[in-house]
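Appendix C: a fully annotated inverse folding record. The material below is reproduced so that readers can follow the format used throughout the book. The structure is listed first as tokens, followed by the designed sequence.
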């Protein structure tokens, strides 16, 4: 069977490429929604080819720009195991998105087919979903046209969170096998998680959830029907998914993490002792927080971020593994953005790996442990159980009654935690489980270690590609000489650490700085920023 090139060119003519370039980066393609019709059409073709390549297994496409503003949109491709698209295919996405004409597009498609030895007679099935952005319906139509052009079977999964789509893809592909992941429906997703949650927890006080006015809101409202309020009461806030401009505006995980404060206006909707958390716009990130001391003081805000979630989960799972009398290695994965205190805390307890920014790197590194706990500091992450560890837990028969109970808990955790990707809903339940089973408050969780004061700055430079890094992005190799200057500056502060890297999702360079004394932090961060600006100017002129 050959390509229906006429069908591709005819359809492509309806989605002309704007005069600009696109990149499939850390989190797929992300830019202004109005510019993305051609990209959606074209990446749908790639998703269909990927499905053919995988012998007809289902692949996925999610239309979302996550925590970015409402006018933005984007596409994330999902591989047959429910994980992010293999890095080796990202270049295909970038190339196809940038093909300058319909003919060049056909050429790129033929090239992918040849390079990946794709059998075109294979069937292709692609499941897709979208978030609440106003540009989604048009982009979904472009995406559908791309699937039609390749004769792929379309499965429109509707309005979903990103992790729900990842769940669906794995559930479809494992149906009826030993690795069956769950019913391949949205209901199946809620049922699986709720069932596991009920197995794990006693009751507790309500949790206030900021849904970022995004797709996490309807998802959480539906999940509530599966978990009785008596076992998990929620107060669900920021649910205005049809209010223009509301998405991620003054609320959501990214806002809370970057401003280190409550979502705008939340003070009047919560109590001084409320336990709170925020999702991002597509509900694959979560951070927790509470108020300590006088709620009118800014300093009363206490953030429990991805690093604190790693510490909480790694500690509890390590304890369970010990009690369960099974030989499993628990490890953790962080990026350079992890607070130095969290790294020190974890290193005394479990192996810690550092990877470059972007969850695909953390995810792969976590797979090398029997049980791998990974979170970016911004709250994106999950816990992975290797197939061998699940088999060991199921197979172990003897031992003390506590050992059997711990194995049962660990197995329920493998059901509760989304194994495909970080998932705000699932991570929220995980944290609830650990806190309740161990009888801890947010304040007790918070006291595991004290974060070093830290700051993240964006620096706009003429050309961010002049910045290159090594050692999991912890050191610069270019521009020449800058790394030595950064280290020299950081060494002037007690506990000083700083690193600089080009963003993979925005046109900027990021500066991270931390040190022991809060009143010295501003100087450290600003001095590094100045060094970066000077070096960027010099490098651009060279
Ligand atoms: C410092 C920071 O938060 N970086 C974010 C951001 O990446 P950058 O490459 O830094 O732009 O977006 C990524 C995708 O959402 C996320 O994985 C990552 O953690
Ligand atoms: Mg997101």
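Designed amino acids, in order:
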């Amino acid at each position: 069977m050959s390509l229906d090139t006429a069908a591709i060119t005819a359809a492509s003519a309806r989605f002309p490429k704007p005069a600009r370039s696109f990149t499939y980066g850390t989190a797929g393609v992300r830019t202004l929604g109005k510019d993305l019709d051609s990209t959606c059409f074209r990446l749908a073709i790639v998703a269909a080819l990927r499905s053919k390549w995988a012998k007809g297994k289902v692949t996925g496409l999610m239309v979302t720009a996550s925590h970015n503003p409402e006018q933005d949109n984007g596409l994330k491709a999902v591989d047959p195991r429910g994980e992010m698209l293999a890095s080796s295919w990202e270049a295909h996405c970038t190339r196809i998105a940038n093909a300058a004409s319909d003919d060049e597009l056909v050429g790129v498609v033929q090239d992918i087919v040849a390079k990946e030895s794709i059998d075109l007679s294979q069937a292709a099935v692609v499941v897709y979903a979208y978030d609440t952005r106003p540009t989604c319906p048009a982009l979904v139509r472009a995406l559908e046209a791309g699937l039609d052009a390749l004769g792929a079977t379309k499965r429109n999964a509707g309005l979903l969170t990103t992790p729900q789509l990842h769940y669906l893809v794995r559930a479809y592909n494992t149906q009826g096998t030993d690795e069956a992941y769950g019913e391949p429906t949205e209901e199946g997703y809620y049922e699986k998680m709720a069932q596991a949650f009920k197995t794990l927890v006693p009751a507790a006080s309500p949790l206030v959830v900021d849904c970022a006015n995004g797709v996490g809101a309807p998802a959480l409202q539906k999940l509530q029907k599966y978990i009785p309020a008596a076992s998990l009461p929620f107060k669900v806030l920021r649910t205005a998914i049809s209010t223009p401009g509301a998405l991620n505006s003054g609320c959501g995980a990214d806002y809370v993490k970057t401003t280190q404060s409550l979502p705008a206006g939340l003070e009047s909707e919560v109590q001084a002792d409320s336990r709170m958390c925020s999702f991002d716009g597509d509900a694959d990130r979560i951070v927790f927080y509470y108020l300590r001391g006088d709620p009118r003081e800014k300093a009363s805000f206490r953030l429990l971020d991805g690093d604190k979630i790693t510490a909480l989960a790694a500690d509890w799972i390590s304890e369970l593994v010990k009690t369960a009398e099974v030989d499993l290695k628990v490890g953790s994965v962080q990026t350079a953005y992890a607070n130095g205190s969290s790294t020190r805390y974890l290193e005394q307890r479990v192996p810690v790996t550092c990877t470059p920014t972007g969850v695909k790197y953390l995810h792969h590194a976590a797979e090398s442990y029997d049980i791998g706990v990974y979170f970016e500091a911004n709250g994106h992450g999950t816990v992975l159980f290797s197939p061998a560890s699940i088999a060991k837990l199921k197979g172990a028969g003897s031992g003390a009654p506590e050992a059997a109970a711990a194995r049962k808990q660990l197995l329920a955790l493998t059901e509760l935690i989304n194994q495909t990707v970080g998932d705000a809903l699932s991570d929220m339940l995980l944290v609830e489980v650990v806190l309740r089973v161990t009888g801890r408050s947010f304040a007790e969780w918070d006291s595991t270690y004290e974060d070093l004061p830290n700051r993240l700055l964006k620096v706009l430079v003429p050309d961010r590609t002049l910045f290159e890094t090594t050692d999991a992005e912890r050191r610069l190799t270019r521009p020449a000489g800058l790394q030595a200057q950064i280290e020299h500056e950081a060494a002037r502060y007690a506990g000083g650490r700083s690193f600089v890297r080009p963003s993979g999702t925005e046109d900027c360079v990021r500066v991270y700085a931390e040190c022991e004394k809060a009143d010295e932090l501003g100087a450290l961060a600003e001095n590094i920023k100045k060094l970066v600006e000077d070096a960027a100017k010099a490098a651009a002129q060279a």
